[in-house]
Amino acid sequence: MTTFAVVGAGWRAGFFWRAAEGVDDLECLGAVVRTPRELPVPTFGSLDEALAAGPDFLVTSTPWSVTPEVIGEAVRRGVPVLAETPPAPDLEGLRALWSEVGASDLVQVAEQYLLMPSHAARLALVRSGAIGTPTQVHVSSTHQYHAVSMMRGFLGRGRGPVTVRATRTTAPLVNPLVRDAWSGDDEPKEAATVLATIDFGDGRSGLYDFTDNQWHNQLRFRRLLVRGSHGELMDDRVVRLAGPETVLQSEITRYTSGRDLDLDGFDTEHLSHDGQVLYRNPYRGRRWMDEEIAIATLLDRTAAWVRGEGEPPYPLADGIHDHHVALAVEEALAADATVRTSTEAWH
Q1: What is the pLDDT of residues 292-325, one digit of tens each?
Q2: CA distances from 64 to 51, 60, 88, 89 (A)
Q3: Is residue 72 within 8 Å of 97, Cβ to Cβ?
Q4: Which InterPro entries did the record assign (predicted)?
Q5: Which of 7, 45, 106, 204 can bridge 32 by disulfide, Cβ–Cβ 3.0-4.6 Å?
Q6: What is the pLDDT of residue 259?
Q7: Closest Cα partner for 275 from 249, 247, 248, 253?
Q8: Of 142, 163, 153, residue with least CA distance to 210
């Protein structure tokens, strides 16, 4: 049994202890809270109390400004950490954190987007070579470091300087849903949209497109486009050159149980393309949504890494780099100028 403790007790923290309930050989020992409260897991009044319980690793689900302190303390004590995104709030903080703990190999980042079933299936298809060499990724679904992570993942790009250009516009938009409820407000309000191009070099680029609250606002589609040398993937549609004078169109399809007279219960089973399974849900029977599947997968991989049985799920250097690029988008907006990021120690 691999165990962990969560530092924090907010909305995001709950995903981790709920996921642990459905993952074999994984247990959440409890959560560190600043003030006493009732939770579904035991609570600790301090990090010292949590570490005294002997967790195999920590999950930080804390404010951006607090996370580096928790990471540093855990590393000083030799405890592996899975840190919620981003690991530090600004470039100065990222550099300081890397200087303090970068050499320890004890810190992973809780970047889960490419572990979601749809994205995992799309990534498998791109990596199969179906659309040739990926050259450009358009992401319009999530913000900042998450979008950068998706771009780099689909492009197969590592860490290094990038060139960023960005603009922001505003327009009226109804915001019917917030994080966990209907807003009850159907009056349009001004919402900002950020468009940015990110040049990763070597002919690889990304287009960032995010509107305020796009994570939750169902009046905006989530869009993903991956362009390759021999075709492209648009959400779940694929166009590709299959041979001389042969262009094919096809789709990634999701098979779910629980429809019509299937009485096994509603659940994601697998995603496939042209008769080939790209992704199988490892938690069938849990009836989880995609985000829960992604978080459980992340915890599973972290536990395997801690035991020495798996690769690092998302190293600190990658999480730091994603946020550095995201900060460059904000800098380009503020300066209304092209921004070229610097070469950093984590590259």
Answers
A1: 999 999 999 999 999 999 999 999 999 999 999 9
A2: 21, 10, 6, 5
A3: yes
A4: NAD(P)-bd_dom_sf
A5: 7
A6: 87
A7: 253
A8: 142
183 exposure class (CB count in 10 Å sphere: 0-12, 13-18, 19+): middle
What's residue 177's pLDDT?
Answer: 86
Give Cα separations from 104 to 65, 79, 332 (angstroms). 21, 10, 33
- Looking at residue 235, its pLDDT comes to 98
| 112 phi and psi angles, rounded to 5 deg | -110, -5
Average pLDDT over residues 131-150: 98
Q: If residue 334 lies in a helix (H) or strand (E), which one and from where to where?
A: helix 316-335
Domains recognised in the chain with CATH numbers? 2-109 (3.40.50.720), 114-284 (3.30.360)
Q: Rounded to 5 degrees, what are φ and ψ at 27?
A: -135, 135
Express each pLDDT in 229-246 by its tens digit: 999 999 999 999 999 999
**Phi, psi angles (nearest 5°) of residue 161:** -60, 145
